[in-house]
Write a structure and sequence with these properties.
Layout lengths: L6 H7 L18 H8 L17 E6 L4 H18 L2 E6 L2 H13 L5 E5 L2 H8 L7 H4 L7 H6 L10 E5 L2 E6 H7 L7 H13 L3 E4 L7 H13 L2 H8 L8 H13 L12 H9 L3 E7 L8 H4 L2 E4 L13 E2 L2 E6 L6 H11 L2 H10 L4 E2 L11 H12 L3 E2 L8 H17 L4 H16 L2
Parallel strand pairs: 1-2, 1-3, 6-7, 9-12
Antiparallel strand pairs: 3-10, 4-10, 4-11, 5-7, 5-8
Length: 441
């Protein structure tokens, strides 16, 4: 399912939930959509209300629909079955469909355990009573920093999330291409635009870009905001405490508008995988994305992939803040097989699962510090160092704000900006007006 290209199209697809909210990659609309979404079983969980449970089974709702992460998850769940004797019934749903229907899913008959994200997204569902307290699982875990525990903690001080992996967003490139043309890592925005201009002269698309699914452009907005206005402004803007009509926000869009001609055109019709393939095929010079971009490169090509953090724009603010989202697992509010669900979460959070992930996925970093990371590629080691040296870490735009705001306002607004970047004033006024309505709800 592709992302809607306008707010009207988005609303036309959705179901009216009793709790507003969903995510990337909230459901508000007419009841006509109910049958379309639920009847097709796009996100139907394995749970039921029969009250019984199978002591040798547990169900898992997964958004790991891309080939590589799906395969890695299968290996991890096989490891759990081997160690516990418990079978994991995995309900895999397209990544974007999972996010766009998660709220309805959790209020229906969800799987015992489901994939999700740390930060605001986790706290939102915990606060709404749509997820179970897993503090007892955390009491059995080791190898996590206080930062990971904090990112897994709800507003009530209890843990509702078990981290599995994380990844930084950065500007990726192929070393062989840069060596061929003699490109150097840019330190400032002027350096960056000069480099992109040279790439254009050399016959390359300077910046690979895609936003068919709505969320990739959020990464560009985020990094420009972090570089222009700093981390605290990002947090406050996402929390609805700052005005979108402010000069600070307009400067983000002004800066972005100057960079758009350097981006791959027709981005609203392209998936991130297709944009990544442009980089992989040496047709583009750079790509701002998460470390998972490596999923589109062969094992041999991994050694040719490198990155740099987006350059400095304001020397006072610097270039140390970045997006580094944390992925992991939560437990449904009334799991059918609760004992097995807690065992599965403990396994997901343990060293064994992390070791399997390291061996099989060069495009992510494991959260458990007890894992054997000797198998990390050079790219993974560099990514871990960059995240470790960051002064502030954001969770990504649609994980740092209200689900309904991100999905029904920001996605269509950013896509409208990409299509027509001239009316920044009108765009920011529209966002602000809708924000006031949502954040006062």
């Amino acid at each position: 399912m592709s992302r809607p290209r306008s707010q009207a199209e988005y609303l036309a697809r959705l179901v009216p939930p009793s709790v507003a909210g969903i995510n990337r990659r909230s459901l508000l609309a007419g009841a006509a959509g109910t049958g379309a979404l639920l009847g097709t079983g796009l996100l139907a969980g394995c749970g039921d209300d029969s009250g019984g449970s199978d002591s040798k089974e547990v169900s898992l709702g997964s958004n790991q629909s891309d080939a590589k992460p799906k395969d890695v998850l299968a290996k991890v769940t096989d490891g759990f079955k081997t160690s516990s004797g418990v079978q994991v019934a995995v309900n895999t749903v397209d990544h974007n469909t999972f996010q766009e229907n998660i709220n309805n899913y959790l209020q229906g008959k969800p799987d015992d355990v489901f994939t999700w994200f740390a930060g605001y997204r986790m706290r939102f569902f915990a606060q709404k009573g749509l997820a179970s307290d897993v503090s007892d699982v955390w009491g059995k875990l080791s190898g996590y920093s206080d930062a990971f525990k904090k990112a897994s903690t709800g507003d009530d001080g209890k843990q509702y999330f078990v981290p599995a992996s994380y990844y930084p967003w950065a500007v990726f490139y192929r070393k062989s291409v840069w060596q061929q043309y003699g490109y150097q890592t840019p330190k400032t925005l002027d350096d960056f635009t000069t480099l992109a201009g040279q790439m254009k002269k050399d016959g390359l698309t300077p910046i690979a870009f895609a936003d068919k699914d709505g969320w990739p452009a959020m990464g560009t907005f985020d990094i420009l905001n972090l570089r222009i206005n700093g981390y605290q402004f990002h947090v406050d803007l996402m929390a609805g405490k700052e005005a979108w009509t402010s000069d600070k926000v307009k400067k983000i869009f002004d800066t972005w508008a100057g960079l758009l001609p350097l981006h791959q055109p027709d981005s609203l019709g392209r998936t991130w995988q297709e944009a990544a393939q442009s980089l992989q095929q040496k047709k583009s010079g750079m790509y701002l994305l998460g470390l998972f971009v490596g999923q589109q490169f062969s094992n041999e090509e991994q050694n040719d992939l490198d990155f740099f953090t987006f350059p400095e724009i304001d020397p006072v603010i610097g270039a140390k803040a970045l997006d580094a989202p944390i992925d992991g697992y939560m437990m449904a509010r009334k799991p059918k097989n609760e004992d097995n669900a807690r065992k599965l979460l403990e396994y997901f959070g343990g060293k064994a699962a992390a070791d399997i992930t390291v061996k099989n996925d060069p495009a992510t970093l494991v959260a458990n510090t007890g894992a054997d990371v000797s198998g990390y590629t050079a790219l993974q080691k560099k990514a871990a160092e960059v995240v470790g040296s960051a002064t502030e870490i954001a969770q990504f735009l649609d994980r740092d704000t209200r689900p309904d705001f991100a999905s029904t306002v920001i996605i269509p607004a950013l896509q409208q900006f990409i299509k027509d970047p001239k009316d920044i004033g009108g765009l920011t006024s529209s966002i602000e007006n809708q924000k006031k309505s949502i954040f006062t709800d």
